[in-house]
Every structure is written in structure tokens, then in C-alpha cells.
Amino acid sequence: MRTKQTIAIIGASGTMGSAIAKSLCKGNYKLLLCSKEPGKIETLIHDIKSTNSLADVEISDCFKEACWEADIIIAAVPYASEQELAERIKEVANQKIVISIANPLNETYTGLITAADTSAAEELQKLLPHSKVIKAFNTTFAADFSTAVIDRKKIDAFIAGNDEDALETVSELVSTAGFNPVIAGVLSASRTLENTQLMLIQSTRKYNYNWLAAG
Amino acid sequence: MYEVYFENFNQKVPLTDSEQAQIKSFLSVKKLRKKQYLLQEGDVCKSIAFVEKGILRAYAINETGTEHIIQFALEGWTVSDLYSFLTGEQATYNIDALENAELVLISKTAHEELLQQVPKYETYIRLQMTNAYIALQKRLASTVSLSLEERYKIFTATYPDLIQRVPQHMIASYMGLTPETLSRIRRRITENK
User: Fold this and answer.
1) Which of B29, B31, B37 is opposite residue A94, by nearest beta carbon?
2) B123 domain-assigned
3) Which end of chain B is more exposed for a tag (fewer CB within 10 A), N or C?
4) Which of B154, B143, B153, B145 has the alpha carbon at shortest distance from B177?
5) Can you give the CATH number for the domain in which A163 is found?
6) What is residue A148's predicted lDDT score, i.e. its pLDDT?
7) Which chain B residues contact residue A91 at CB under 8 A?
8) Which residues of A touch B114 (CB under 8 A)?
9) Chain B hits for A130, Cβ within 8 Å
10) DSSP B88-114
11) How far apart (Å, rounded) are the C-alpha atoms in residues B85 and B78?
């Protein structure tokens, strides 16, 4: 696509949010970074610009404004914050792609807090009924973004969603971030993806893996 | 966010609150900054944009690299590469913002669904298309039958806002003239007053 797309990254100062911002700044995107910690965002923008002076990236101090301007919204926030976020952006997120990256882990990382017949992505879809919620980046650890190629193979990054066009757009985005996009299925496939990440986190902790296990 | 859109809609086809809510669920809002593109040629035009605030223009670039402005869109107007939108073929137009803008976007899928689900939407679109066709016919007729001075006078009388807000060289491009020719025409009109 030639036309530059605008992406709002909510929670851009977090580990995942900043890794996503860094990986997307080389693409044909304008990035609007939102966070409750503006100091951290300024450092992040400085880091991005020092490695890529052409990056079109800026700080946005209002979630709603950023989402209003955006074509794509990345909710890089914990599952517990999704409801509050959804309420704030609902009106401006209508018909837009909203990427859910959250894994609804419990405090001890021993299980998921969502019921077995749903997922964080499906819950977000209920809160934003007219948005196109897509699950992505939940099985990739933050460290994978700087090492997206292991043993000369790109790491697979799974995507799930109900809208064909939106899946295509997000596949392009995941590819720009350096991963190999794999469409896992409709949005309910997020249940498997979120449980997969639970398993990966548990094994990484148990066997002291290097936090690149998703590959 | 949708005020101008629904004001325009209700003037043509009055809606009940529930019809309005139903239509709204299919729409999306977007802000575009001055000089930012909504569409570049080569991409598929996936949405029709309704202008809530600001000005957009659609233009094509010919083989020698000259820009030709096809259309301006002010508050209350729509803009798209209609051919690309309807056929799914690559766009031949570029669409960008001449001022910071607020838009209501209707995607192809939303448009198709609305046509099926909301009869009043179909009526609204029919009226819009009819008006656009009449405007096109008038523009074509004036191009072949009127003098440049008459065309410019009609244009300024019809769209006084546009003359205030858009640079002259763009008006010239829209009329298919060089900026020098347009400037001569304007001088002649002033002298003859």
C-alpha cells in the first residue's frame, strides 16, 4: 500500500508497546504513541529517531485524539485495562482495526482469568462491537522483536480475526514488524492463541528458556 | 464528529433516531492533517470520504508529471476515486488534505450493507449520485460552450468559499488553465467591472 497509514499505539511505553513501535517505525506508517508515562515515550522517540531519522513518529497526549486520527489502533495494554480503554475510544474506533495483544493471565501466571468459552480478544470485541478486533502479537515475546529471525527463519506470528480485509492489513503490518504472519482463524481462535502463550510462559519459567520461545 | 453528515442526510432524507444509530454503526471517523494523503494512486480506494471539516482535493498526474485537480471537497461534500471504489481496480487519483480535516468514512463493505439494510440510505445515495451527475453535466457543458471568463465567474459565484480558501494555482489546475492564464482572466474581469 502506498498511502501512509496512521497507527495509534496505546500503552507505547510498556515492554510490548515500545517493541512494537520500534519494529513498525521502518514501515510506511505514521505512529502516534500514547502512554500515561510521557517521559518514557520521549526516550522511546529519541531512541527510534537515533536509529531511523526518517521515522514518522510522535507523542500523542490524548488516547481519543490519537485513535480518531488513526486507521489502525494497537491496544498494547494489559487485559485489566481493556475495558477502561474501550470506553474512552469507542466512538472513534468505530469500523477501525483494533489489535488486541493482551494475554489474560492471572497474577501467578498459572492460568487465564477469562472463562474457557471466551478470550481477551473476544471480550474486547464485545466492548467495541463495531470495530474490527484482531488478535496479534500475543504469542511473540518482546525480546522476539529484536531477534525476529532465528536460525535463518522468521518467527511465526499468529493472527486471528473475523474480517478478511482487516486480517490482510494486519498480516502486512506483522510482516513489516519482521515476523512471518500466520492466520490462525476467526477471532475465537484467540482462545487457543492466548492459552498457547500461557503454556509458553509457564515452560519458559520452568526451564529457564531465553524468552524467545515463541519461535 | 458526524454532525455535518447527518445534517446533510436529514435535509435530503429525514431519519428516525434508530435509523441514524444504525447508519452510524457502519461509519468511521478520521482526522487528516494538511498535506496528508487519504489515497495515493495505485492503491484501491476502499472508502468514500464525507468532509465534516476542512478541504480535500482529488488530483491526477499526467505523463509529464503535471497535476490536474479533478475535484475539491469542502464541508458537506464527498470525495473518492469512485471508479476504483466501485470496481476494486487501482486508483488513478490522489486525494489529500488542503487544510486539517475531519472525515466520515464509508467503506465499500459498509456501503453495500447499508444499501441492503437501510432503504433511506439507498435514497440518500441516489440523490447524491443524481446531484453529482447534474454537476458533472453542467461542468462539461460550461467547458465546451462558455468562455473562460464566464466559466470563472460562474465558478466564483457558485463556490465563493473555495476561492477564499484555495490557492489560485489550484483553481487554475481545476479549470485546466495555467496560473498565468487564470491571472489574465481575473485581471480582465476586474478591468471590465
Assistant:
1) B29
2) no
3) C
4) B143
5) 3.40.50.720
6) 67
7) 1, 29
8) none
9) 25-26
10) -PBP--EEEESS-EEEEEEEHHHHHHH
11) 13
- Do A95 and B30 count as a contact with CB atoms less than 8 A apart? no
Cβ within 8 Å of residue A165, ≥6 positions away = B46, B109
pLDDT per residue as tens digits for the range B10-37: 999 999 999 999 999 999 999 999 999 9
8 Å CB contact between A141 and A214: yes
Written as nine digits, the cell of A108 is 501467578
* Facing residue for B27 by CB, picked from A4, A95, A165: A95
Domain hosting B80: range is: 3-110
Chain A interface test: which of B29, B35, B95, B114 (most A C-beta within 10 Å): B29
Q: Give domain status of residue A214, yes or no.
A: no
Q: Do B26 and A95 touch (CB under 8 A)?
A: yes
Answer yes or no: do A69 and B24 touch at CB < 8 A.
no
Instruction: Kindly state whether residue B39 falls inside one of the protein's structural domains.
Output: yes
Q: Is the dihedral of CA B58, B30, B111, A167 positive or negative?
A: positive
Distance from CA of B110 to the nearest CA of A (A): 9
Q: What's the pTM?
A: 0.93
Among chain B residues, CA nearest to A72: B30
Q: What is the CATH number of the domain that holds B12?
A: 2.60.120.10
Contact (CB<8Å) B25/A165: no
Tens digit of each residue's pLDDT, chain A (215 residues): 899 999 999 999 999 999 999 999 999 999 999 998 889 999 999 999 999 999 999 999 889 999 999 999 999 999 999 999 999 999 999 999 999 999 999 988 889 999 999 999 999 999 999 999 999 999 887 777 776 677 777 888 999 999 999 999 999 999 999 999 999 999 999 999 998 888 888 888 888 776 665 44
**DSSP 8-state class, residue A187:** G
